Amino acid sequence: MNVEEALERMKEKGYKHTTKRQEILELFARDSRYISAKEVLDYMQSRYSGLSFDTVYRNLSIFSDIDILEMTELEGEKRFRLSCATPHHHHHMICMSCGRTKHVHACPMDTLDPVKEEFEITDHKFEIYGYCQECKTTPVN
Ligand SMILES: [Zn+2]
Ligand SMILES: [Zn+2]
Ligand SMILES: [Zn+2]
Known about the structure:
By secondary structure, the chain is an alpha+beta fold. It is built from 6 helices and 6 strands, in the order H-H-E-H-H-E-E-E-E-H-E-H.
């Protein structure tokens, strides 16, 4: 998803377009990786001093409610990234160091037929954590 699509979705859902919201979306669009709420706050406060964590966090929750952002929790911290534009069902491998993701096109649900019979599944979540090639080969300082 890009910033234009995200703004369009926001409008459809009845949320007002504001410069701050657009700047948050642009931050995510620049870098396709998981970013913590704290990083978003630091960035926004460097532009608007005195902007509160609540304001930033409220916007991140709205964006994730209307599926503009995907949310995950890494090391006890909520992190966000722009939702993938692809309509194909897939999962992510997430780098614990830089937050970048890679797509996994296999789905573990495909192997769970017996479970499907005894439980009406409405959704599922599957993420693989580790280190990307780049982070793995960079010596830790
Ligand atoms: Zn994806
Ligand atoms: Zn990495
Ligand atoms: Zn799946």
